[in-house]
Amino acid sequence: MVTNPFQITLRATRISCGYTALEAAQACGIAEGTMNRYETDAGRVPRRTAVQLSRLYGGVSLDLIYWGKESDHFKRKGAESEYDNSTA
């Protein structure tokens, strides 16, 4: 699977756009708990909700959001990072 090295998590996208989880959830007509679960595992987000979030977040491209488990994203980013603490 080819991934975009510049992808960010759904949670990071929301935060960078200045929304709380509650605000984003209300805009999509879902419960805040559901939004929190989606941010933990974005692979569970229905396409319709993903498009709603993209529009809410200013039209951010769906390709720029990591649509998997948030923990996997961080593992992947750490493993693929060009920089590590040993060279700092």
TrEMBL record:
SUPFAM superfamilies: lambda repressor-like DNA-binding domains (SSF47413). It comes from the Bacteria. Residues 10-65 form the HTH cro/C1-type domain. Pfam families: HTH_31 (PF13560). This is Helix-turn-helix domain-containing protein. It comes from Paenibacillus agricola.
